[in-house]
User: Fold this.
Amino acid sequence: MTRGSRRRGYTLVALLVGVTVMSVLIASVVPLASAEAQRDREEELIFRGRQYAEGIRVFRRRFGRYPNTLKELYELKPRSIRKLWKEPISNTNVWGLLSIANAGPGPGGAPQQGGSGLRPSPTPTPAITSGSGAPGMPGGAPAPVAAITGVYALSKKKSYRIYDGRDVYNEWRFTEQSLFGGGATGNNETPGGLPGPGIGGSGPPGGGR
Assistant:
């Protein structure tokens, strides 16, 4: 074998080793990046859910009743929320809506947050037709007259973070009560994980706020 052939052989072996090492590194990094992105979305869900909870609280104090649609939080002046947020886990305009009518018993038979002891104002409120893309309502569908007390994500996926003792996204409930208790307490991988943003604290990074 000539010296040139040996050099070409060494180059080919080195190239194959390099490709193998790169493949191993990529295979190990991609799941970590995906998990980190999901944690960012979880923080954004907490931030946006609490924005809606605060908007509902402000709306009730201003108008003496709960909103009938999420759109009312933004459209009735003065506004109770600065924008209509997307649900970040599924990247959709549609949120699950908590109301006095659908607030059933929680763990151990206790009332769920969003329904315990809360009553709508007797002030009559007509049905509202929401426009296209209104969070919580299909475009153009008439919105039912219902007292919205909170929101939640519809995704049934398991979360990394534990929020208010729950590790499934559609069990994370954002209501007036949740502003003053509970919250993110850790994650499912290691005990004592990162806490979520609290009232008056800084929100999570990113998320198009």
User: Anything to note?
Assistant: Confidence is low (pLDDT under 50) at residues 104-143, 189-208. Strands lie at 96-99, 128-129, 142-143, 148-152, 158-163, 166-168, 174-175, 184-187. Residues 3-63 form the longest helix (61 residues).
